[in-house]
Amino acid sequence: MSKGWIVDKMAEFVRDMFRDFCESALTLEEQFCLFDEIGWVDFHVLQDLLGSEMSKGLLWRLKDTSHHVFQTDPIESPVGQFLDWGIGYIFHESLKLKEDAYQHLTYAPRFDDMQSMDLPPLERDVGLQLVQVLSQTKESMLREISRIRFILTQCRRLMPEYLNFHQNNLLLARFIYAQRPLVKSVFKDRYDALIATIYENKPELLYVYASQSLRLGGWVEQAMESMNRAHEINPESLQVIQEMEIVGNWSKTFRA
């Protein structure tokens, strides 16, 4: 994959990176909440999230896409380098978490059953020692989850600053517009700050750029819906007025 081709497709790569980050972060946090509740995570969910070298999962693809974006983007910024490292760290820490989840899933039930069996002294003593190792595995999972949560928090702080460099990315705006529930569920009370930082306190631009992307894709009604939202936010914006006129003309042509 050549650097020039990646630069040419940077808008798509940035959109894909942010999309996969949101989806991965949501899946991971769901597993962490499960751990908070019952003391373990679902190995099969982590296995699907990570995948393998021959069949990469969402988080693996995120790690690869992040390398392409942050190491190729002509806009050189420490923010991008921090995000590249952070996402890579999350990937590798999740691999360890998956392995610990496998140990818990595979061996913990066996050892629990063996505790009720009438074993010879040697086997009973060894079993007790191994159970202690399994309890340490659970402690390792807690540490891994704490580290991933911490890095995810820092990535959520940095992501708006990086995406500000790509505020004119129509594909990014269209994704955020179409997947607002997903983005809000990941950024929570930071969502408004995310939009304000990307679009420099002009939140209507999110809807203007989303409209432009939708319009270029032939989705006229959806473009009009986006522009109605932009008009509600700032009806005096020149960009809002211009895009409203364009979409309105397209809508008349489409109906005709």
Residue windows where pLDDT falls under 50 for at least 5 positions: none
Amino-to-carboxy terminus distance: 45 Å
Q: Please give the number of β-strands.
A: 0
Summarize the helix and strand pattern as letters: HHHHHHHHHHHH
Radius of gyration: 24 Å
- Strand fraction band? under 5%
What do the pLDDT scores average to? 89
Largest sheet: none
Structural class designation: mainly alpha
In total, how many domains does the architecture comprise? Answer: 2
DSSP summary: helix tally: 12
Helicity, as a percent range: over 70%
What best-fitting shape do the alpha-carbon axes yield?
Answer: elongated
Description of the structure:
With 256 residues, this protein is mainly α. The chain folds into 2 domains: 1-166; 180-256, no CATH class. The protein is built from 12 helices and no strands. The protein has helices at residues 3-8, 10-38, 43-50, 58-72, 78-115, 121-164, 170-178, 180-187, 191-198, 204-216, 220-233, 238-255. Helix 2 (10-38) crosses helix 4 (58-72), helix 5 (78-115) runs antiparallel to helix 6 (121-164) and helix 11 (220-233) runs antiparallel to helix 12. The longest helix is centred in the middle third of the chain and has 44 residues, at 121-164. The two termini are 45 Å apart. The mean pLDDT is 89.
